[in-house]
């Protein structure tokens, strides 16, 4: 792992991983390098600063609330000495995966996410694309792309950084979080009112002695997809850039094959249902949409789906989605009549292939 200094070049693509989607480094900060081991290898000096950062503990879909971050014995945040990918990671799509791949090529990979943006900015509440308790599973599936290391997500309350200008934000990364480097896409914006761009990120990281790598945007096969009914990602949509907004449009249109291409995996919808609320008649199960933990595809009939009940093997099924319910028809009976002595809630997963 490399970190800090003042003039020299860094060769990022060491080809330990197979090339993916043609992404490549556009520019990077350039300086004399000093060894910078991850926190598990060499503790770094503690920063006296405190933050409102949060890092997720292993989550289950029956727990409520966030867990406060725990500093190490040396007073460090978990990302200290790591390489953080910067972005909005709502969908965890193939563009986000590419950032994680590049981060893993340099050091220990993290995703730096901001929570509470909708509340602070007054956006209308909307269901997440990936259920919060399912994000660790998705990131674990990226390990094979990242040198057998699963990226870890580190969360910061957006309210705590909203008013930071670009320089203050990079200062926080360097002096408080003690990261070793950052990876971002070519269109990345940061700082108050998104006033900083990728070029400024490289410049500021050089000033604060951390490495910065800017990579090409990951493009999908369709140059235009969906209607641009919001300003968010409108420019990237016109160019065919993979984005969370494109995933939402494809889900709304019921194009699950296209969603799979954008995500790099089948879309999985989770339901946290009370056992007594499950309507099961033979091989047909009815779920109310109020039990869903993330965004389902639009109304329609979906064949070649899979139903995951707890830790059991997936069961082939057909799913009918309407405004109020999901109707799941399986090839075998998967539920039996339950009594009150059994667990109150059941976690179900539906994968749309």
UniProtKB/TrEMBL annotation:
Pfam families in UniProt: FAD_syn (PF06574)
Cofactors (names): Mg(2+)
Described function: Catalyzes the adenylation of flavin mononucleotide (FMN) to form flavin adenine dinucleotide (FAD) coenzyme.
Keyword Cell division found: no
Enzyme Commission code(s) on record: 2.7.7.2
Pathway(s) served: Cofactor biosynthesis; FAD biosynthesis; FAD from FMN: step 1/1
SUPFAM superfamilies named in the record: Nucleotidylyl transferase
GO biological process terms, semicolon-separated: FAD biosynthetic process; riboflavin biosynthetic process
Organism: Arabidopsis lyrata subsp. lyrata
The entry's keywords: ATP-binding, Chloroplast, FAD, Flavoprotein, FMN, Nucleotide-binding, Nucleotidyltransferase, Plastid, Transferase, Transit peptide
This protein's name: FAD synthase
GO MF, any single term: FMN adenylyltransferase activity
FAD synthetase domain location: 82-223
Cell compartment(s), UniProt: Plastid, Chloroplast
Disordered: annotated span: 224-243
Chief subcellular location: plastid
GO CC terms of this entry: chloroplast
């Amino acid at each position: 792992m490399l970190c800090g200094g003042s003039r020299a070049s860094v060769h990022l693509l060491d080809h330990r991983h197979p090339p993916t989607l043609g992404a490549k480094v556009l520019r990077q900060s350039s300086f004399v390098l000093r060894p910078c081991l991850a926190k598990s290898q060499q503790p770094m000096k503690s920063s006296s600063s405190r933050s409102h950062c949060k890092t997720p503990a292993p989550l289950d879909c029956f727990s409520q609330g966030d867990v406060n971050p725990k500093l190490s014995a040396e007073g460090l945040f978990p990302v200290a000495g790591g390489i953080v990918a910067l972005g909005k990671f709502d969908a965890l799509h193939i563009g986000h995966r590419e950032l994680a791949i590049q981060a893993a090529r340099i050091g220990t990979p993290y995703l730096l996410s901001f929570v509470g943006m909708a509340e602070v900015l007054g956006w209308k509440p909307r269901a997440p694309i990936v259920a919060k308790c399912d994000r660790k599973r998705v990131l674990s599936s990226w390990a094979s792309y990242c040198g057998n290391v699963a990226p870890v997500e580190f969360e910061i309350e957006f309210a705590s950084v909203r008013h930071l200008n670009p320089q203050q934000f990079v200062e926080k990364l360097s002096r408080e979080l003690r990261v070793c480097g950052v990876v971002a896409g070519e269109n990345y914006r940061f700082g108050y009112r998104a006033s900083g761009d990728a070029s400024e990120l490289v410049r500021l990281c050089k000033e604060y002695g951390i490495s910065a790598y800017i990579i090409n945007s990951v493009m999908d096969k369709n140059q235009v997809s969906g209607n641009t009914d919001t300003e968010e990602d409108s420019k990237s949509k016109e160019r065919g850039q993979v984005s969370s907004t494109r995933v939402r449009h494809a889900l709304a249109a019921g194009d699950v094959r296209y969603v799979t291409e954008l995500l790099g995996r089948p879309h999985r919808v989770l339901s946290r249902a009370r056992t007594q609320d499950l309507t099961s008649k033979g091989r047909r199960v009815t779920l109310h949409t109020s039990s869903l933990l993330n965004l389902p595809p639009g109304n329609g009939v979906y064949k070649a789906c899979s139903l995951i009940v707890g830790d059991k093997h997936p069961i082939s099924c057909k799913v009918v989605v309407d405004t109020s319910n999901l109707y799941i028809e399986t090839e075998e009976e998967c539920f039996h009549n339950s009594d009150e002595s059994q667990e109150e809630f059941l976690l179900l997963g539906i994968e749309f292939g």
